[in-house]
Design a protein that fits this description.
Layout: H1 37-46, H2 48-72, E1 76-84, H3 101-114, H4 118-125, H5 128-131, H6 134-138, H7 142-149, E2 151-155, E3 160-167, H8 172-227, H9 231-272, H10 279-286, H11 289-312, H12 317-416, E4 422-426, H13 439-464, H14 471-478, E5 482-487, H15 502-505, H16 510-523, E6 533-538, H17 545-558, E7 563-567, H18 575-578, H19 587-591, E8 602-605, E9 608-611, H20 620-624, H21 627-639, E10 642-646, H22 655-660, E11 665-671, H23 677-689, E12 694-702, H24 709-724
Parallel strand pairs: 5-12, 6-10, 6-11, 7-9, 7-10, 11-12
Antiparallel strand pairs: 1-3, 1-4, 2-3, 8-9
Helix pairs in contact: 2-13, 4-7, 4-8, 8-12, 9-12, 10-12, 11-12, 14-23, 16-17
Length: 732
Amino acid sequence: MTVVPTRDRLPQVPHVTVPVPHRAGIAPSPAAGGMSLGEITKIIRKRMWVIILSFLITMAVVSAGTLVWWLFWPLYSAWAYLGVEVPKTVVLGGPQQLIPKDVMDREKMYHAKLVLINPVLREAVKREEVKRTSWFARQDDPVATLAEDLSVSPVAEANIIRLSLTGLNKDDLPEIVNAVAESYVSYSNDLMRTGHNQDSLRLQDEKRRQEADLDETRRQASIAKRDFPNLRSSVSVHEIKLQDLTRRLGELEQRLSEASADLAIIEAQEQAGALANSAAVQRYLDADGTVRALEYRKTELVTMRNRLIDKLGPDHRQIADITANLSVTDAELESKRSEGIAMAIRAIKSGAVANRDNYTKQVEEQRGRYNEALNTLRDLQANLTIIEGLAAKEEALTDNIKKIDAGLLELSLLSKGAERSVWIAARADIPKEIYFPRWEVMLPLGGFLGLVIGVVLAFVLELTDTSIKSPSDVSRRVDLPLLGMVPHAEDTDDEIDDLRLAFRTHPGSLFCEAFRQIHTCLLFSGPAGRRRTILIASASPLDGRTTIAVNLAAVTARAGRRVLVVDTNFRQPMIGQLFPQLASEGLSSALVDQANWRDLVAEVEPNFFVMPAGTLPPNPAELLASDQMKTILVEMAAEYDQVLLDSAPCLVVTDAIGLSSMVDGVVMVVRAGVNTHGIVQRTRDMLARVGAHMLGVVLNGVLATPGGYLRKNYETFYEYRQKEQLPAPAAK
């Protein structure tokens, strides 16, 4: 949706107009909130009179109040100063060194807080000079009052504390302040001496405890060193030994892993039947004498049989005997070989198991030696840590004892100078000038307060005013395009009797120029075919619908387009009163088929046609929502370039609501300063629910703020129009 800038200026021509959502029950959301710097500036400029008035009233009240206060109840203030002796740290055999600044500040703050304690104040009010004052006579609880009224503060960059008291009687103030100062000096010096003695006793007790702990630590360290004279060298030797055991254990674990792997391979070959043909088994068989003898005998028998076959033939009896003997030898050889293979497998497997068990035993023995060496090394290291800890503790205790000795020496030196820790550096005198009120403070404060009150009041008035007054209110709160603004009659220099006929009586006025702007915005707001029939609607009566409809129609007609204004307000019709030449019959007669609508139209100016409402019917809402009305609107749109419908107020009656869904677009008229944004939003939502196409808003009766853009624009318009008027021709 096109949104005009939120400034008081004449509207620009929008390029695109997006309708409000048409679904029933869905209302368009308001514009995003937030107040810009320009809007804040505009509110301040608009409500400048409130700010100025608040400033002047506040300044007057503050000035009068300050004068009365200064004349009748002036306040005086008396000051006394306490000097603080910041202690010095004394080091034996060395020069004196000043305590750092942060220590000095803490010392002054310490004394400043102690001044206000009850013992000091009770001692001060007991003094005779205080009891003689009129201030003391008026107090029920002088200690509590003095604690509340007395001001005590350290003075920067100086070893001084300031005591001040403010009151009406300037003669009493010095007596009270000096009494408090004297009371605190006495209290502080007593407290200092007592505190030093207590601190000294505490440090002496602490020194005895530290010395006893140091003796015990030295005794334990001596015993440990006697039991372990060469502890560091023993730790080094055992660390080297542990490294060697670690290396040897690693080697044995590697060999054990290899032996376990060999045994697993042998068992796998045995299960697969491949071990009998292995080289190890074959070597075992080659070493067996019985097998070798049987193999030799078999070889001899085979050789002998082959030789006899060549001599005697294969069928000879000796050949058969040798063959039988050879079979017996083969069977015996095969039996011996099987026995040998089984024995070889058992021997190989037993050897692998024995090898694995041997390495397992060696690893366990080596791991035992490793654990024993590791435990021994840990014990040695633990003892070494104990000895080193005792040495560190001995050193720390020795340092603590030295610090305690230094503290005792410092307390001893400070106790000697405790009488000068706090003293009265300057006594209070009777004040000669009024302390408060001060004109140089009250007047700027009153001016600032007046400005703050004025600005706050201006924003309160602006934020509590919910009426729509400017284009920014339309864009921010209504979320509809602004088609134009019609100025208020008071802002124009033209004397227009009837604003509804301004275009006929004052066509060159600023008022009519605003309608040319609206006509231009409507002309470029969309295709001409989608804005032939336009309903002029508003929320409430007297918003200016008839004024907008008639003047906008006059502008359109003078632009060369045929325009028809139809009075659809069957409640309080106005068109017939503006044009007396119209007939008494009108739209209502056409809707009940008593006349043709074309016969009821009258041309009041070239291209400017008007149809009155006619006789007021008993059922206006039903007639305007009828099919007959739709038919008439279609026929009107076909014969005229523009049809403008003047309607009844939407929130008063529902006549315009039903009619809004039949037209091409709706122009909402908003009376500036009268219609609130809630009323306008409610009207917009009602039209959106029935599917009305919202073209935009015309802001009617806009008042220009003094010094604002609209006021300057109006002045420029009249100056420009006066300059552009041609001089009258000279008489010939």
